[in-house]
Amino acid sequence: MNRKALPPESAAADFRLVFQTLPGQCVLVSPDHPRFTVVDASDAYLRAVRQSRDAMVGRGLFEVFPEGPDEAHARTIRNLRASFGRVLTTRKPHTLPVAQQYDLQDSSRLQPAFEERHWMLVSSPVLDETGAVRFILHQIENVTERVVAEMGRRESEEHLRYTVELSTLVPWTADPQGRILDFSDKWLELTGLTREAALGHGWAQVPHPHDRPRMIAAWIHSISTGEPYDIEHRIQLADGSYRWMHTRARPRLDDAGHILRWYGTTEDVDERTQTERRNDFLVRLDDAVRALTDPQAITQTAARMLAEHLDVTGALTQM
Length: 319
Prior knowledge:
Distance between the termini: 100 Å
CATH superfamily of the largest domain: PAS domain
Strand content: 15-25%
Oligomer: single chain
Radius of gyration: 36 Å
CATH architecture of the largest domain: 2-Layer Sandwich
CATH topology of the largest domain: Beta-Lactamase
Order of helices and strands: HEEHHHHEEEEEEHEEHHHEEEHH
């Protein structure tokens, strides 16, 4: 069946209608660098940037969206100009790799105010029959919620990181089988291990030889039963000395009660432990000499007990 071709005016009107009602947020500009005159924009684009078609068509895109009052706006406009330049040079689409900030003025307020906006920007050439750039199709996507959420997540992580660094606790995590997945850098500073050496079952390198068997047995029991892990022990530090630690861990369970991950902390309790041992020694010494009246017997008993205490304390911290 023969179809009568539409007159150019009708075809142009139909194209404009289709373009304006596109669901995408896009604007069509001329390649007249550096002005980049706006030819038309979709209704979705106009709503997104809070502009009217009359306010945009026929004006340069960067007249409608100037650099703005701060560096973030200026950087976005510079990046977009460079992107347009790349499209003109390569005649290929170009996407700015990260979200660009360009805030929009809130006209509903009595005092001038801006609302934060972040955009992903893609620019594509529209070529004529000779391969020359006839228009640039510029598409935008409002990704403000995503960017703000990511910024909030990073801020929370930074807050947690600084909190952990100032804490005396060394946090760590392990998988359901008890393999260490992560820990703070403080653990590496204490032990002198590399991160690779400390992951998995690498933690077993640093406990005192006398403490290692009971630590492993207690850890296996907790992994098998899901019961909390709670133990005091000694570890060898990077300088070869030993200090007392208190390690605790609890599992996070799924709805069926299966272990998803272990969350634990290791705390330096060496000063407390040594103080407790000194206090215990003084109590035992007092009990031992209280009934004695002979000065020589008191002296001999005190000397013997002190020697035993110093020997045990030394063995506990240096063996």
